[in-house]
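Long-time lurker, first post. I've been practising inverse folding by hand and with some scripts of my own, and I keep getting stuck on stretches where the structure tokens seem ambiguous. Below is the full token string for one chain I'm working on. Before anyone asks, I'm not after the true native sequence, just a reasonable design that respects the backbone. If someone could post their per-position residues I'd love to compare against what I wrote down in my notebook.
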């Protein structure tokens, strides 16, 4: 049975989440502040943690950071405040697997939970672990979120992997900026298309031999990008 830890101090939210998760067939435990949440994550054996950012004693960010520092990779989905772009970026940099922005629909959160659980399961399959593709000068494993240049590991953020994976899945075809925004960021909280451009700049620096003269991720003027493979 899938076990989920909810770390949240607002009781109404806790009750709503718990009821819905149990209807999904998840086993649920609750912690009401960051300190208790951290303790439970370190002691327990959860399949996934739903972690609020705004928490008494220790914030969700602090909890996330401590958990990853200890080498524990239990998937974490952050609950962030509306419009706090910084929260999301920081959250993913601190090692969260995904986030949803309050207010969110339970359906959306459950869909995210299932997607993260699927991804983790897939990464555990030996066949997926061995599956690398060559993109530009990198060797990439999308199942395990690993990237190598020759034999040196290249640090790539979660979003960078997601965007690259999306471009790879429709390689040799043009992907519009709007499409990338919709698929990668989704829902109504989309950042601007300039965000996409910024991510492409970062990806090119890692992938291309010469990022000023890209050969792998091409710009399709006025539309978007095309990954050549
Ligand atoms: Ca809270």
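-- Answer (accepted) --
I ran through it position by position. Result:
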């Amino acid at each position: 049975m899938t076990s989920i830890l909810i770390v949240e101090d607002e009781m109404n939210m806790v009750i709503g989440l718990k009821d819905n998760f149990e209807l999904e067939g998840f086993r649920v435990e609750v912690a009401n502040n960051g300190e208790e949440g951290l303790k439970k994550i370190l002691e327990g054996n959860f399949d996934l943690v739903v972690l609020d950012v705004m928490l008494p004693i220790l914030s969700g960010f602090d909890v996330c950071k401590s958990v990853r520092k200890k080498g524990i990779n239990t998937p974490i989905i952050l609950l962030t405040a509306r419009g706090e772009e910084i929260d999301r970026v920081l959250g993913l940099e601190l090692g969260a697997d995904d986030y949803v922005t309050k207010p969110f629909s339970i359906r959306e959160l459950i869909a995210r939970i299932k997607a993260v659980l699927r991804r983790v399961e897939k990464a555990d399959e030996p066949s997926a672990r061995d599956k690398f593709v060559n993109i530009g000068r990198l060797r990439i494993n999308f199942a395990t979120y690993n990237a190598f240049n020759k034999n040196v590991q290249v640090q790539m953020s979660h979003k960078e992997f997601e965007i690259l994976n999306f471009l790879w899945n429709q390689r040799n075809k043009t992907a519009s900026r709007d499409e990338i925004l919709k698929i990668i960021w989704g829902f109504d909280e989309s950042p601007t298309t300039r965000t996409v451009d910024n991510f492409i700049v970062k990806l090119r620096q890692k992938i291309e031999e010469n990022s000023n003269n890209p050969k792998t991720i091409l710009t399709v003027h006025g539309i978007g990008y095309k990954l050549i493979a």
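A couple of notes from the structure itself: The chain has a mean pLDDT of 89. Residues 8-10, 52, 54-55 surround calcium ion (CB under 6 Å). Happy to go over any region you disagree with.
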